[in-house]
């Protein structure tokens, strides 16, 4: 029996997560394996219930599970809370406590969505990029951090920091992944300016020379990479990068695929793993049945592949999504007309039937 901790969160989180759970139930049926789902609170909803964005029982159950499926957290209602109480702290807390250092974000464009991409069809057709983002280091976690009062004025501080072992383990993740694909890694940094990036480049080169000489490695500054992603996205296969650069570049990559509602992710550590769409809680469309559940459903497929080693059923889900899109069904974010536009739940049901 597989134990799955389900954390729907806020905004569209519960809407898209319920469709991913529907697909996992279908997979459990196909595999003839029992999945045990435990629903947990985190984010704004948890703050409302317990005064904490990441209650102890949620963390405990996540640590005891075989995999975590998360929706999204946050919303304007909680924006003015003190830093420690903000919903987004639940994410950072889960990532740190579960030691999820590697965030894997595939950006694949389905042919049926060629006209939904903001970039011309001949430039994006066939893109299949994976962003490997370091997730527990860098400026989101570095100390000191805060807002301090100095001589009558305030100063905001964040610290970008990386240790050699932190860079080594994420580099291994990217190179190992590249071995299973087209054997090419682009490491993105800002080594012309940042000391963390200078160390990053040095360590990535060292690991490459010593253990992965058969993989093609190149380095790119992040400002150039953000431009190249739009100019010539097909030059990329595996992009290896640090926490904040990966956060930004993967959102940019999502628009190549048509919508942020299409991109899943897996966050992996030595012992635990968590799967979530890359989008946030989308307060502007929450509760209206407008959210695209495909990113969440593909996150469930990644869960089956990475945590439960069920590659075949994961492929089935991917092909089901492809076939529903090929039949012309869309959610509003990827539709250019009003025809065949489905609600979140209808899209989930169509994909389940296609499986
Ligand atoms: P967002 O990703 O929530 O939304 C950006 C835009 O994309 C919005 O217009 C939204 O309607 C659209 N969108 C997002 N997901 C969609 C989907 N599945 N289907 C259709 N359209 C979709 O980013 P934001 O507006 O910057 O942030 C909103 C809240 O989410 C904030 O509180 C932020 O902190 C939080 N957030 C959470 C996560 C997470 O939980 N992992 C990630 C990013 C942002």
The whole-angstrom Rg is 20 Å
Mean pLDDT: 96
Strand order of the largest sheet: 2-1-3-12-11-4-5-10-8-9
Helical content (DSSP H or I, runs of 4+): 40-55%
Instruction: Pick out the low-confidence regions.
Output: none
Question: What is the 3D shape?
Answer: globular
Termini separation comes to 22 Å
Question: What is the second-level CATH architecture of the largest domain?
Answer: 3-Layer(aba) Sandwich
Order of helices and strands: EHEHHEHEHEEEHEHEHEHEEHHH
Helical/strand content category: alpha/beta
CATH topology of the largest domain: Isopropylmalate Dehydrogenase
By CATH's scheme, which homologous superfamily of the largest domain applies? Isopropylmalate Dehydrogenase
> How is the main sheet built?
10 strands, mixed
Give the strand tally: 12
Bound molecules: nicotinamide-adenine-dinucleotide
Kindly give the count of domains: 2
List the helices and strands and how they pair.
Layout: E1 2-9, H1 13-31, E2 35-39, H2 44-50, H3 56-64, E3 67-72, H4 88-97, E4 102-108, H5 121-124, E5 128-134, E6 142-150, E7 153-159, H6 164-179, E8 184-189, H7 195-211, E9 216-221, H8 222-231, E10 238-241, H9 243-256, E11 264-268, E12 273-277, H10 294-306, H11 311-326, H12 344-354
Parallel strand pairs: 1-2, 1-3, 3-12, 5-10, 8-9, 8-10
Antiparallel strand pairs: 4-5, 4-11, 6-7, 11-12
Helix pairs in contact: 1-10, 1-12, 6-7, 8-9, 10-11, 11-12
This protein binds nicotinamide-adenine-dinucleotide.
Describe what this molecule looks like in 3D.
With 355 residues, this protein is an alpha/beta fold. The chain folds into 2 domains: 210 residues, 3-Layer(aba) Sandwich (Isopropylmalate Dehydrogenase), CATH 3.40.718.10; 138 residues, 3-Layer(aba) Sandwich (Isopropylmalate Dehydrogenase). The protein is 41% helix and 21% strand. The chain is built from 12 helices and 12 strands. The protein has a 10-stranded mixed beta sheet with strand order 2-1-3-12-11-4-5-10-8-9, with helices on both faces. The protein has a two-stranded antiparallel sheet with strand order 6-7. Helix 8 runs parallel beside helix 9. The protein is globular and about 55 Å long. The mean pLDDT is 96. Nicotinamide-adenine-dinucleotide binds next to helix 4.
